[in-house]
Amino acid sequence: MFNPKLKNLVLNKTGDKMKKQYLQIIFNKLDLNPNLHYITIALITIFLFFPISICSQTNSFVTVKGRKIINTNGENLLLKGINLGNWLVPEGYMFHFKSTNSPRMIYELFNILIGEDEANKFWESYRSNYITKDDILFIKSHGFNSVRIPFNFRLFVMDYPYYELKGVGYELLDQVIKWCKEENLYVILDMHCAPGGQTGDNIDDSYGYPFLFESPESQQLTINIWRKLADIYKDEPIIIGYDLLNEPIAHYFDVEKLNPKLEPLYKRITKAVREVDTNHIIFLGGAQWDSNFKIFGPPFDKKLVYTFHKYWTKPTKDVIRDYIDFSKKYNVPIWLGESGENTNEWIKSFRNMLEENNIGWCFWPYKKMESERGVVSIIKPDNFDLIIDFANDENYDYSSIRDNKPDFEAVSSALKQYLENCKIEKCIINEDYLGALGLNR
Fold first, then answer.
1. Lowest-confidence pick of 271-280, 377-386, 394-403
2. Which of 183, 212, 315, 438 would give a disulfide with 349, using CB separation of 3.0 to 4.6 Å?
């Protein structure tokens, strides 16, 4: 009989359930043929300390195979997701503001209205209330299998000149990822606002130009943040991967100059991520609002998915034909990272077309105020029009502030009510929108 103490030691040291089962079979065979003991000890050592693919047909992480995204059982995974927009990147239009549309502008507006200390308290409660465990339960229960989490880099780093990688963002991500793991809801992390700005518009919280591509400091900070996030989540299988830069390089700028700088930066970020994390997929968006794949050469990593965004086009195959051709040329998966803000009829037609071509999707957004073009709608609070009117006046000189600022108590009451109304149990479910996505109403 094989040495019982050695057998128990080996089995107890083996954490992988599948390997333990195989080892038990081997030991049973050895009890019948003692002459094989010394050879088998060597084989067991190799078995324990080196990965052997024949032991299991499963993966611990979602990965890619040819043009498909593959789940942990080796099966095709068609992503059906929703973007948690406006949570970690507030956008003006979701509050019905016009020109006050970037996060920093909205923060400034609230500072003016109620003072910086009260505004800070508001945003702390906002981040706690806007996305909760109940939201994740709701999303999963209605048939989504994934969420994309847009985030602002400013939540993950201290201000100049320190630039230490500290901030509330880490705790916020930890919490929502924990909830998603409990519900088996996949996560894609999306740097919506990068240092310096990758887009040059309100959505990246920049100063009106994609300075990221001309600033070595901003590029290095972007790399550092992604490397830290990858190091934190390298062993977390509920995360599918990292969407490195949302909608880079708007069409307003010198694209001939800027476009050639995008893929080299992607390569640098990916290299830093791979130093700590070889498990997760890297998502790469094209230039000009994630629409232009011509800037890409051959794939430079084994786990890449190329992502495109489409708004306000025809919901037909011809509008994504270039992406399909790219996918076939390089044998890589493609994914719709954002779409929506349209009629339910359009949503249904576009979604059906994507699924017919095995293209996963993630519509935009999950939640916003007084709108049917999202999964749920926040009821507009009383007196919130006072805030909207002041924001849309667009005149923040000090005399105008003194003369036109709405009543403090009225504003405070409206914002307090907003914090309650944004909770999922207080929201209106847009059932026809869910139906257009082919999900449970």
1. 394-403
2. 315
Half-sphere CA count of 337, side-chain side, radius 13 A = 33
For tokens 């999963």, name the residue: 140
What are the two backbone dihedrals, phi and then psi, of residue 69, each rounded to the nearest 5 degrees?
Answer: -90, 130
pLDDT number for residue 170:
98
The pLDDT-based confidence of 20 (bands split at 50, 70, 90) is low
Amino acid 17: pLDDT: 46
Average pLDDT over residues 18-36: 56
Question: Residue 302 to residues 65, 68, 147, 223, 356: CA-CA distances in angstroms?
Answer: 9, 13, 23, 19, 26
Query: Tell me, what's the pLDDT at 54?
Result: 36
**Any idea which of 22-31, 129-138, 232-241, 384-393 has the lowest mean pLDDT?**
22-31
Long-range contacts (CB closer than 8 Å, 24 or more residues apart) made by 256-265: 258/210, 258/213, 258/287, 259/287, 259/292, 259/295, 260/295, 261/213, 262/213, 262/287, 262/295, 263/295, 263/296, 263/297, 265/212, 265/213, 265/219, 265/222
> Phi and psi at residue 243, in whole multiples of 5°?
-90, 100
Give the whole-angstrom CA distance, residue 146 versus residue 241: 11
Cα 9 from Cα 440, distance rounded (Å): 49
Over residues 260-283, the mean pLDDT reads 98
Angle of CA points 272, 276, 278, to nearest 5°: 95
Half-sphere exposure of 428 (CA within 13 A, CB side): 14
The tokens describing 317, both together, are: 């195959």
Give which of 186, 210, 199, 353 is closest to 288, Cα–Cα: 199
Which has the closest alpha carbon to 237: 422, 413, 73, 421? 73
Say which CATH class 64-436 falls into: alpha beta
Q: Do β-strands 63-65 and 68-70 pair in parallel, antiparallel, or remain unpaired?
A: antiparallel
pLDDT in tens, 59-83: 899 999 999 999 999 999 999 999 9
Query: CA angle, 211 as apex, 208 and 215 as ends, to 5°?
Result: 160
Angle at 113 between CA 108 and CA 119, to 5 degrees: 65
Rounded-to-integer distance, Cα 130 and Cα 35, Å: 66
**Alpha-carbon distances of 220 from 104, 163, 169, 236, 379, rounded to whole Å:** 22, 11, 19, 25, 41
